[in-house]
From TrEMBL:
Species of the source: Candidatus Raymondbacteria bacterium RIFOXYD12_FULL_49_13
SUPFAM superfamilies per record: CheC-like (SSF103039)
Gene3D superfamilies named among the record's database cross-references: CheC-like
UniProt keywords, alphabetically: Chemotaxis
Hydrolase among keywords: no
Domain Chemotaxis phosphatase CheX-like: 50-143
Annotated PANTHER family: CHEY-P PHOSPHATASE CHEX
Pfam families tied to this protein: CheX (PF13690)
Keyword Kinase found: no
Protein origin, superkingdom: Bacteria
One GO term (biological process): chemotaxis
Name by which UniProt lists this protein: Chemotaxis phosphatase CheX-like domain-containing protein
Amino acid sequence: MSTRDNRIAGNFVVESMNELLEKMAFVNIEPREPYWTGDFIFEKELAGRLFFSGPVSGVFLINCSAQFIREATSNLLGIEGAEVNEEQLFDTLKEFVNMVTGSVLHKMDSEKSLAKLGIPECRNVRVAPFDESAPCEVMVCPFTFYSITDNAEDALFLEIALR
């Protein structure tokens, strides 16, 4: 990707994440400067990923803390954070990675060709890391998450590897 393509893709990611998280889950995030790295960073404990193929192939990965996804799940389901169970956390993260992948791919594909999406996966990468490394360089799009429940800041990462 050229520098221009990187900015465009980064803009699509920011737009898609804002649409998804602010409108659906009432979560406030602020984008930070995207950067490139040689592999997924897995800075936070939870990760949801989705492989896709078509004119462009690769993987989208959302890496976040349990606190972030608990607050988003609580807001999405309209229940207290303490009532959210692990299955609901993982289901929310899988749904988020599915929706943001579809949104970004739709915005990036001017010809509106069909991309084939895999099945979203989610896990605690501190307990059971993903085995594969990235198929190529990874664009990391970091965000700052502002928690309403505990007035704290946290980080959230959308990582994209395109082949």
